[in-house]
Structure formats: structure tokens, C-alpha cells
Design goal:
six-stranded mixed β-barrel, alpha+beta, two-stranded antiparallel ribbon, single chain, elongated
Length: 393
């Protein structure tokens, strides 16, 4: 404790130099906290946009089966085990069909949905550009790509054809999500309209949407325990490997950036301590002359580095967390930079989110960097001969 208090007094005696070094370190740590929160927010947005357009964070799929059996499951299958991570569940039926207009024919995947529940978690309702979102339960809502290919507009009649069905539907709305493949290959109808079809190749789906930061794997394990025998339960990384790879790439890029900032921070601490040691050659020589061992001199330098880094960590983390919380409340609009990116077409606003890892990892890395950076100045101070230090002072 004596040498720790001694190191603290040494730092306080050189307030200007200590303050400049501390502010530089705090800025670096705070920047890492903010960048980490932005990275998590970007990952959240990519995942949320992708799962909203597909099958949720966790999906249970059963089939193929007849439409009557799929409708029975829509009515009777339970919600699954209670789980605070689950924000909601959607039940759907899915089958493939051909849409035919007077001018062309196009394949599509029909999703039969409950419109009101669907609009809580998916962006289709707010992506409707023409017409309405199931203003009439018997309508069909198609994508902009499909409408262009078939030369359809709101109010037109389109023929839906499957091996067992040939039925006309009115186009009630046209949506445009900005994802060309989705807008060209997916159409929606209500579960009420689908119940009248005698389609034998139908897949029953349950889409579970989770709270931000929840683990899909843990939720899947709970859902799988109550799933039907023929129901396959999968997580979003299994269903969307390209999105999972982008998230991993974003995390890896942030890891590289964090490493570089920590290295720069370490060199800054080493430089500041070395200059401080060179200015105090005489001071350390006097300490050695009165019996202080070289190891204790080195300990003082190490304690000085750790004290400055600890203070900078607390200050930088506090400032970074405050900035992240404010930014997370208002959001960061990336629409000017992601207009051609399908993973941001639905919602280009990123909300930075703090996690324990991104808050405390910079502190731990900074403390390690400071300890390593103090080694060289400590060796210089401890090994300098007393006679030489007294002459050079």
C-alpha cells in the first residue's frame, strides 16, 4: 500500500502531464465503447431486417401437409414454453404456386398470414406502396417485382395456379421492400382465404421473434422440447448463413480496430512514462541511495501506469456509455450509405446498443496495455546506476 500511495502522489504532483495522458487514454477507451455499441447496433439491424423478411429468430417448420391439417395446427398448436426472450410468435402457412396475368406467368411463394399479428413484427404493411394491406381478406398482396413482371396493378385480377387449384384473386396491394428477390418471389394472402384452398403441399411455420440481445440457440432448445414430432426447429444463423457471416465479419473488423487502438494507447502510455522517468532520474537515484531496491522503483512506475489507466477507464467508459445511450435513443440513419444494401433496405436506422462485453473489454485491454507499456520505463528507472543518474540530472 505504501508504494501505491507513493505512486498516486507522484501522479498528482505532475497534474498537467498526468491530465493530458489521462484524457488521451479516456478518449481512446470512450471511442472503443461507442464504436462497440455501434457495431452491436449494426448487427442488431441486419439481423432484425433479415429475420423480419424471413422466418424470425427461431423458426419451426412442419410439412408438407394438406391445407386442412396446416389450418388445424394454426388453431391448436401451443405458444411453446414461457420464455422472457420471446417477444412474439407468428403462425403461417406456405406453399408454392404460379401467378398468371393476361401477359405473363411467374412463380411465387404464397405465405398465408394473420395480417394484424404479422404487421407487429414484419415490415410488409409499411412497405405497401400501392393499394392497401388486406383491406379485403380475399385480396392478394404481391411484390413490386412480381407486379412489374406480370404487368399488374391494384385492382387487377390474377390467376393463382397449383397442381390442385386454379383460382382468381384480386390484387389488393403491392409492396416494395427493396429486396429484389423477395419482391419478385413472395406473395401474401390471409389465412382466411387460404383455408378455402385444397392444397396438398403446404408447410406450417411458427416464427419466433426475440428481444434484442437474446440467444437464439437457448430459445430453440426450449421450443424444441414442446415441438411437434415432424416440426424442425432452426435458428436464424442456420436459415440465413449469409447474414450470420456478415455479422461475424463486422465483429472481426471491430476486433481488429480495437486491437489497433489498444496498441496505440499502449505506445502512448509507454512514451509518457518514459519521458516522466527521464525527468526524474535524480529523484530515483536519491531513492536508491537511501536503500530503495530497484524492484520497488519498478513497482512505482507500474502503479503509476495502472492508476492513470484505471482513472482513464472509468472516465472514458462513463463518457462512452453516455454517448452510446443518447445515440441509441435517437438512432443513426445510414440510409445515405446503404441504399443498395438489401440488409438495410427495410430499416436503415441503427440504434447503438451497449453490452457488458463492449463496455468492459476496452477497460481490461487498456489495463493490460498499460501494464505492458510500463515495463520498459520501469526497467530504465530500475537499472539506471545511481552515480550516472546523479551526474545527468
Amino acid at each position: 500500500m505504501f508504494w501505491l500511495r507513493f505512486a498516486l502522489r507522484s501522479c498528482l504532483r505532475r497534474r498537467r502531464r498526468t491530465g493530458i495522458t489521462l484524457l488521451g487514454m479516456a478518449f481512446a477507451i470512450g471511442t472503443l465503447v461507442v464504436l462497440g455499441a455501434i457495431m452491436v447496433g449494426v448487427n442488431d439491424t441486419m439481423i432484425q431486417n433479415a429475420v423480419a423478411m424471413h422466418a424470425g429468430h427461431v423458426a419451426g417448420v412442419a410439412g408438407p401437409m394438406r391445407m386442412a391439417e396446416a389450418m388445424r395446427r394454426v388453431r391448436t398448436v401451443g405458444e411453446g414454453p414461457p420464455d422472457a426472450a420471446v417477444a412474439g410468435q407468428l403462425r403461417r402457412c406456405r406453399f408454392t404456386a404460379m401467378l398468371q396475368s393476361d401477359r405473363a406467368t411467374a412463380p411465387t411463394t404464397i405465405w398465408a398470414v394473420a395480417p394484424e399479428q404479422e404487421s407487429e413484427f414484419t415490415p410488409i404493411r409499411r412497405s405497401v406502396r400501392e393499394g392497401g394491406y388486406f383491406e379485403r381478406p380475399s385480396d392478394l398482396v404481391i411484390g413490386a417485382g412480381c407486379a412489374r413482371e406480370l404487368s399488374l396493378k391494384v385492382g387487377d385480377v390474377v390467376l393463382l395456379t397449383t397442381p390442385s387449384e386454379h383460382r382468381e384473386f384480386r390484387v389488393g396491394g403491392i409492396f416494395d421492400t427493396g429486396i429484389d428477390r423477395f419482391d419478385a418471389g413472395v406473395s401474401f394472402m390471409t389465412l382466411t382465404a387460404a383455408a378455402d384452398l385444397n392444397e396438398p403441399q403446404v408447410y406450417f411455420e411458427r416464427a419466433f421473434f426475440l428481444e434484442p440481445g437474446s440467444e437464439a440457440v437457448e430459445t430453440r432448445e426450449g421450443i424444441a422440447t414442446t415441438a411437434q414430432v415432424d416440426e424442425r426447429v432452426s435458428t436464424w444463423p442456420e436459415l440465413l448463413p449469409e447474414v450470420a457471416q456478415l455479422v461475424d465479419l463486422n465483429t472481426f473488423s471491430m476486433t481488429i480496430m480495437t486491437t489497433l487502438v489498444v496498441l496505440i494507447l499502449g505506445f502512448g502510455v509507454a512514451n509518457a512514462l518514459l519521458i516522466s522517468v527521464m525527468d526524474r532520474y535524480r529523484h530515483f537515484a536519491v531513492l536508491k541511495a537511501i536503500g530503495v531496491r530497484p524492484g520497488e522503483v519498478a513497482r512505482v512506475i507500474l502503479f503509476e501506469a495502472l492508476l492513470m489507466c484505471l482513472a482513464a477507464s472509468l472516465l472514458g467508459t462513463g463518457l462512452g456509455a453516455a454517448a452510446s445511450l443518447v445515440w441509441g435513443h435517437y438512432g443513426l440513419d445510414l440510409s445515405a450509405y446503404t441504399s443498395s444494401n438489401p440488409h438495410f433496405s427495410v430499416n436503415p436506422v441503427v440504434y447503438p446498443r451497449l453490452t457488458a462485453m463492449m463496455m468492459f473489454a476496452p477497460q481490461a485491454l487498456a489495463l493490460c496495455a498499460a501494464a505492458l507499456a510500463a515495463v520498459w520505463p520501469a526497467i530504465v528507472a530500475a537499472s539506471r546506476p545511481v552515480s550516472l543518474a546523479m551526474r545527468e540530472a
